[in-house]
Structure formats: structure tokens, C-alpha cells
Amino acid sequence: MLSKEDLQKDLHTRVIGRRLFVFESIDSTNACARTLAEAGAEEGSVVIADFQTNGRGRQGRAWKADPNVNLLFSVLLRPELKRGSAGLLTFFAAVSVARAIEKTSGCSIECKWPNDLLLNGKKICGILLENSLEKEALAYSVVGIGLNVNQKNFRDDLRKASSLSRELGAPLSRDRLFQELVRQMDELYPPVRKSQFDSILIEWNARCRMFGKEVTVAQDKRHISGTAVALEPDGGLRINTPSGPETVYAGDVTVVSS
Ligand code: BTN
């Protein structure tokens, strides 16, 4: 089981993880972090749990993860961002997680638009960004991270899901991985606070293998097919479709061909 003492031992970060709330079981760390945010909790506070009874995923889906083997946590941020830049926090989280995994285990992580991380083509991490806006500015953001660390089995309908230990063939220390992740976030955060995402987007791009490939983006009511061309500076995905270029901001991407 996770313990606050072990997770914070020798952490020494400036902002991220200075306040840590650890639960054995909780409905959703994102829900808890939002409640804390509304009550005025300080920036960088982290809520982490060994198990979630009502874990939330993107597009209204559930995030189900076995107890005591994964990293399920949410980070509260209060950067001064305009509405149009708030979504870029996803890329900040993705690059932080990718860096931490690579540093801890030596493998190469792929970033998949908009907010998945893959290892050997399998999804090992999902990010759920929940932003609270006040007029044209971001009031706070909760960055939820679900990282499959040592989970052995996945439901049949999650054929493309896996965990780090399954792909790497050996279990990993959740404490070590969490600490590295928090350190990477803390290191990358100062420019983000000032709305400077350039180097993060460059790094994210370097880990994305989707460009130049045929993709289909499934949204609630429509599917968009075409060639994935580039990541826009505002985080949108530019696609060349048969009827012209289009930029999408949400949806599930399937790579149809290479
Ligand atoms: C996705 O759909 O890919 C995003 C999944 C995000 C899951 C994490 S687990 C920790 C945090 N708390 C939640 O309820 N969801 C996020």
C-alpha cells in the first residue's frame, strides 16, 4: 500500500506534491481534487489513491484499475492561463509522465493525441484534464493521471491496454515512479505557469508517431478521416481530409494505416 511518508521522502519539489493526500480507496481522485480546489487548496496539491470506486475517464467513460498495483492520482494547478491555452496542460502532463517512465525504466514512450501514452503500441496511461474557467481565464485545473504500473490482467474489451510491468517483463516501484513523475512535473512547470508551452509541444511532437498516417477521429456525433498532419500551437490536431484541412480538438483517434 502507498504511504504518505514513503511518497514524500526526500522529494524536495518546489510546487508539485508539497501537499499530498493519500487514500486507500476513494471514489475518484479528480473529484476529490476538485473539492479541495473549491475549498482553496494550494497549487501543486496531489491526491493519490490505491483504488478508485468511481474512476473517471475521458468522454464520460469509467476508468477501472486493479487495487494496489497502479498509480491513480490528480494534481491541482492554478497557472495564469487564458481559456484558449488551458487545454495545453494535457501535453505538460503527458511529457512529464513520458520523461519519468523513460528515466525510471529506460524504455521509449509514445504520445498519442490527445492524451494517451503508449508502450509497444499499447495504452499504459490516460490523462483526464478537468478545467474550471472563470470568464476567459482558467481558475484552476485538475490533471488526473491513471498509469498502469504492475497490473497483470486487462478486460478482453481493452485489448490495446497494458501496464509497464507487462510490457517490460518486471515489476516497477510505484513510489519511485511517482516521485520521478512529480519531480518532472515540478521541473517543467515554471514556463507553463507563464503560458510558455513551446518546448513541451516540441518534446510531445518528438514522441508522437501519428503524423503522415491515415487516421479516423471518432467524436460524439461524427467521424473525421484523413491524414494526420500536425499538432497546432493550441493543441488541436490538424487533419487533411478529402474535403480540405480540418482541426479537431476532441475525440478518439484510430490509426488506420501507416
Ligand atoms: C482516459 O480516459 O484515458 C483518462 C483516464 C484518467 C484516469 C485517471 S485515474 C486518476 C484520476 N482520477 C480519475 O477519476 N480519473 C483520473
Structural key phrases:
12 strands, SH3 type barrels, globular, 29% strand, BirA Bifunctional Protein, domain 2, five-stranded antiparallel beta sheet, 2 domains, alpha+beta, binds biotin, seven-stranded mixed beta sheet, 6 helices, 258 residues
Count of separate DSSP helical elements = 6
Average pLDDT taken over every residue? 96
Terminal CA distance = 42 Å
- Uncertain runs with pLDDT below 50, 5 residues or more? none
What would CATH call the class of the largest domain? Alpha Beta
- Can you name the CATH architecture of the largest domain? 2-Layer Sandwich
How many domains make up the coordinates?
A: 2
Number of DSSP strands? Answer: 12
Helix percentage range: 25-40%
Structural class: alpha+beta
Shape: globular
- What is the string of helix and strand elements? HEHEEHEEEEHHHEEEEE
> How much β-strand is present in the residues?
25-35%
Characterize the structure shown:
- This protein is an alpha+beta fold.
- It folds into 2 domains: 4-207, BirA Bifunctional Protein, domain 2, CATH 3.30.930.10; 214-257, SH3 type barrels (Roll).
- It has helices at residues 4-8, 29-38, 89-105, 164-168, 174-193, 198-206; strands at residues 20-23, 46-49, 71-77, 110-112, 116-119, 122-134, 137-147, 214-218, 223-231, 237-241, 244-248, 252-257.
- The strands form 2 sheets. It has a 7-stranded mixed β-sheet, with helices on both faces. The protein has a 5-stranded antiparallel β-sheet with strand order 11-10-9-8-12, with no helix packed on it.
- Helix 2 links the parallel strand 1 and strand 2 (46-49).
- Helix 3 packs antiparallel against helix 5 (174-193) and helix 3 packs across helix 6 (198-206).
- It is globular and about 55 Å long.
- The model has no long low-confidence stretch (mean pLDDT 96).
- The structure holds biotin.
- Biotin binds next to helix 2, strand 3, strand 6 and strand 7.
